[in-house]
Amino acid sequence: MQLPILLQDIERCAREAGRNPEEVRLIAVSKGQPVEAIQEKVLKFEHFRLAENRGQELRDKIKLLPDPHLEWHFIGPIQSNKIKYLSQVHTIHTLETAEQATELARYADKWGRSPKLLIQVHNGEVQKHGCPPEDVAALLKTTRELGLTVEGLMVMAPYDQPEAARHIFQQVSALNARLELRELSMGMSDDYHLAIEAGSTLIRIGSAIFL
Ligand SMILES: *Cc1c(COP(=O)(O)O)cnc(C)c1O
Asked: Rounded to an integer, what distance in angstroms lies between the CA atom of residue 124 and that of residue 139?
């Protein structure tokens, strides 16, 4: 789908859900895509929010696309030996543990800046990543005590199960509201309409843009 068409559809979903379309922002997931495709399918339309899920690939792309307008998001698992690649990231969506928060705080000190953080919530499926919902409040507290900024929650819904996805999005949205957080990273190519309905503010879309 051409990016302008996708943006129109996101805006339509927001209006249908009775929301202000300006609250819903698109992040183009550029993982696995060569720089030429990113230029052709995203940057050409003056869209500057991109996400990667691997540290080295992110570092390489920042070098190849040094445009200061670009806002880089990291959406892959945080590995302690790869945090070094995240120095220029705007937001990390995948904080799962207090150990990761401690490591990130150490790097933030070194860098003189800290990426904003989102806590990834475990979605209840047989899936290894994410903080269990009942532990999110404690992780939030610990992370803030380390001087880091947590802006919201992130979750991935199970594939091809719209009813389960809707339920998970609503639960994580309710948790976000209880914790008085303002950003909510939910929704991918196949389920962004459900995520917008449930209150998502950051939509992470890859295949719908690049395939
Ligand atoms: C790949 C990926 C996406 C984008 O998924 P699509 O189905 O290609 O839109 C979103 N979030 C995360 C965490 C991903 O790894």
From this structure: 18
Q: Is the CB of 92 under 6 A from ligand 1?
A: no
DSSP H stretches of helix in 17-124: 35-41, 55-64, 98-111
Q: 94 C-alpha vs ligand 1 centroid, how far in Å?
A: 13
Give 84-139 pLDDT, tens digit per residue: 999 999 999 999 999 999 999 999 999 999 999 999 999 887 678 999 999 999 99
Which atom of ligand 1 lies closest to the CA of 207? 8
Q: Which CATH number fits domain 3-210: 3.20.20.10, 3.20.20.70, 2.40.30.30, 3.40.50.410?
A: 3.20.20.10
**Ligand 1 atom having least distance to the Cα of 211:** 8
